């Protein structure tokens, strides 16, 4: 296969995928659409986390909390102040961005995994605020009656509205993240990353402010999570603290590890895999049996053992085995 | 940042680089002991001494990688103590490393472009939206990088991966990367280690030509013929102490240096 063929095939595959994604709501039930929406919401968080973990080499255990901050800020502001939910989303993203900036500025200057520790504490803190500040957050019961998104007089109250809104959001988020990785900031990230032949000391000697670089990425990842949370709140119209607790943060982390942290697609594949396996298992086993998490955990371990670069490296690995080649790591 | 630097400014000091009784302790072990010397603008200073004499430690302190235990380092009258490495780079101090520290999975040109970034960041939004402004900047980085590469004598495909280069080319790339920061002071930590004689001459000539372009150079080197040949002044360290500081001809005859470093037999 020569290069022209490959290019042609890529265009065809991409075109077909785009058409499929655009037409999907036409022949799917509301149930399937809600599953697709959750895949999209989780993908949005996961793309941001891939940037942070896969490319900036930092672990955040607070993506669930930022997801929650986006949801709660947006919900509270649009309910209490009676303003457009889109403005609420901007507020939620700003709050998350500012918090991430403050945390990052303080804790990303230091080498090592301080961010993982501090975000763990932060996630617990945020979770407790959601429960305890009931005058604002409604405590255990959460907030109901959150308005749907609306543009002009058009109220987005159908599932497929949100499907398309999220499709646009993800495409845009992906576009931004891809540009970032191809830019000077992406180059600096590769220069800093030890696992891909970079060197922290050489890059700092060349004038790279590593702390500021990682803080930027952390802020972007948190804004992605907050936007996803905001869309979640206005889609569900009802939120409570449970989906934003520390286990959701861990879930996002496992998702990107399963999908592959070294690629933005990894986050999306991880989200598809998590929601897909959960729904399939509960469909066949009937309801919430807990089996979905057991299977998910098992797959997580198997992926770590046999595909450390995630599901996204699977085709490549098969190709290399067929051709009798080995990866450089073996 | 500028304000803090102004506060640090010490008007009376107009030496180019000045080390005042600089010491470094590693958990009680004194690696560098009250070393003091001055460097004038445009000099090539050689730092020599046996293994473990504290040469690299000294450079690491000037460069901001290691905190100074005692003493002060001034660069153009600015106190460097406590500044992080990236700020010291911004002030005009570049360095290359003993083990090269090339970004091995990046292309040659990208290695150099990293050093240019600091002088022209366009900000997050234009970059993420891939605006014209950002693309123009990328092009500038590329052109400036190519120009620096040809200046040090690397005439290879700029998209080749840095790990595929020979030892000499990696050394030159390290120098190019440092030059990309537009330094005034260049710290060279054993640049010719592992090179053949002809390659060493290429690098030595490059160092001399850099000095002609106005750079001040501190060179750590083991090979005596190099330091004797190109340095204006030599500083000899032994067990973290400065034992001599003189022109190469005098160092050659210094009894203390001979016994510490060159070996008694040579007398």
What is the count of β-strands of chain B? 10
**Estimated structural class of chain B:** alpha/beta
The amount of helix of chain A comes to over 70%
The average pLDDT value of chain A, as a whole number, equals 90
CATH topology tier name of chain A? ABC transporter involved in vitamin B12 uptake, BtuC
Helix content of chain B: 40-55%
- In spatial order, strands of the major sheet of chain B run 6-7-8-3-9-10
- Main sheet: strands, sense, barrel of chain B: 6 strands, mixed
Helix and strand element order of chain B: HEEEHEEHEHHHHEHEHEEHH
Major sheet size, sense and barrel closure of chain A: 2 strands, antiparallel
Q: Given the structure, what is the number of helices of chain B?
A: 11
Please report the first level of CATH classification, the CATH class of chain A.
Mainly Alpha
Percentage of β-strand residues of chain B: 15-25%
Structural class of chain A: mainly alpha
Distance between the termini of chain A: 27 Å
Can you count the helices of chain A? 14
Describe it.
The complex is a heterodimer of chains A (330) and B (267). With 330 residues, chain A is mainly alpha-helical. Chain A has a single domain, classed as ABC transporter involved in vitamin B12 uptake, BtuC. Chain A contains 14 helices and 2 strands, in the order H-H-H-H-H-H-E-E-H-H-H-H-H-H-H-H. A two-stranded antiparallel sheet of chain A has the order 1-2. Chain A starts with a helix and ends in an 8-residue tail after the last helix. The model of chain A is unreliable at 326-330 (pLDDT under 50). Chain B is of the alpha/beta class. Helix content of chain B is 41%, strand content 22%. Chain B has 11 helices and 10 strands. Chain B has a 6-stranded mixed beta sheet with strand order 6-7-8-3-9-10, sandwiched between helices. A 4-stranded antiparallel beta sheet of chain B has the order 2-1-4-5. Chain B is globular, with a radius of gyration of 19 Å. The chains are: A mainly alpha (330), B alpha/beta (267). The A-B interface holds A 176-177, 179-180, 182-185, 187-188, 190-191, 196-199, 201-210, 216, 220 and B 63, 65, 84-86, 89-90, 94-95, 97, 101-106, 110, 113-115, 117-118, 121-122, 124, 127-130, 134, 137-138, 141, 163, 177-178, 180-181.
């Amino acid at each position: 296969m020569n290069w022209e063929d490959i290019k042609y095939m890529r265009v065809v595959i991409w075109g077909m995928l785009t058409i499929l994604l655009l037409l999907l709501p036409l022949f799917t039930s509301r149930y399937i659409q809600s599953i697709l929406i959750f895949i999209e919401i989780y993908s949005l968080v996961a793309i941001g986390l891939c940037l942070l973990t896969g490319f900036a080499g930092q672990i955040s255990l607070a993506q669930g909390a930022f997801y929650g901050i986006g949801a709660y800020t947006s919900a509270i502001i649009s309910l209490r102040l009676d303003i457009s939910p889109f403005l609420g989303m901007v507020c939620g993203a700003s709050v998350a961005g500012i918090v991430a900036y403050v945390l990052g500025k303080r804790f990303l200057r230091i080498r090592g995994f301080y961010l993982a520790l501090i975000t763990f504490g932060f996630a617990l803190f945020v979770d407790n605020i959601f429960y305890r500040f009931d005058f604002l957050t409604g405590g255990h019961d959460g907030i109901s009656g959150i308005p749907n998104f609306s543009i002009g007089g058009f109220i987005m109250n159908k599932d497929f509205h949100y499907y398309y809104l999220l499709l646009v959001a993800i495409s845009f988020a992906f576009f931004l993240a891809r540009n970032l990785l191809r830019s000077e900031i992406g180059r600096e990230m590769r220069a800093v990353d030890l696992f891909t032949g970079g060197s922290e000391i050489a890059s700092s000697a060349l004038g790279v402010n590593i702390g500021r670089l990682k803080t930027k990425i952390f802020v972007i990842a948190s804004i992605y999570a907050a936007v996803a949370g905001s869309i979640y709140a206005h889609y569900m119209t009802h939120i409570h603290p449970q989906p934003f607790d520390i286990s959701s943060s861990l879930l996002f982390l496992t998702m990107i590890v399963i999908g592959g942290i070294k690629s933005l697609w990894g986050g999306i594949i991880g989200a598809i895999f998590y929601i897909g396996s959960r729904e399939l298992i509960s469909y066949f086993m009937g309801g919430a049996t807990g089996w979905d998490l057991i299977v998910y955990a098992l797959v997580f371990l198997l992926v770590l053992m046999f595909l450390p670069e995630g599901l996204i490296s699977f085709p490549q690995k098969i190709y290399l085995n067929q051709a009798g080649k080995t990866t450089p790591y073996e | 940042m500028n304000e803090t630097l102004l506060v640090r400014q010490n008007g009376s000091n107009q030496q180019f680089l000045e080390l005042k009784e600089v010491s470094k302790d590693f958990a009680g072990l004194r690696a560098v002991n009250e070393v003091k010397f001055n460097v004038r603008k445009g000099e090539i200073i050689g730092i020599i001494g046996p293994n473990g004499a504290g040469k690299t430690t000294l450079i690491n302190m000037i460069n901001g990688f290691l905190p100074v235990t005692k003493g002060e380092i001034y660069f153009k009258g600015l106190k460097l103590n406590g500044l992080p490495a990236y700020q010291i780079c911004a002030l005009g101090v570049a360095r290359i490393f003993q083990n090269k520290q090339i970004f091995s999975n990046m292309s040659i040109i990208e290695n150099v472009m990293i050093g240019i970034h600091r002088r022209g960041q366009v900000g997050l939004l234009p970059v993420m939206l891939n605006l014209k402004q950002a693309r123009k900047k990328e092009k500038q980085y590329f052109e400036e990088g190519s120009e620096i590469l040809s200046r040090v004598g690397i005439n290879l495909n700029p998209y080749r991966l840095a790990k595929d280069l020979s030892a000499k080319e990696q050394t030159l790339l390290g120098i190019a990367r440092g030059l990309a920061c537009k330094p005034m002071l260049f710290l060279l930590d054993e640049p010719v280690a592992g090179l053949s004689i002809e390659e060493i001459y290429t690098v030595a000539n490059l160092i001399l030509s850099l000095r002609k372009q106005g750079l001040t150079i501190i060179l750590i080197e083991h090979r005596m013929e190099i330091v004797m040949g190109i340095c204006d002044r030599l500083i000899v360290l032994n067990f973290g102490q400065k034992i001599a500081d003189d022109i190469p001809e005098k160092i050659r005859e210094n009894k203390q240096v001979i016994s510490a470093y060159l070996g008694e037999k040579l007398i």
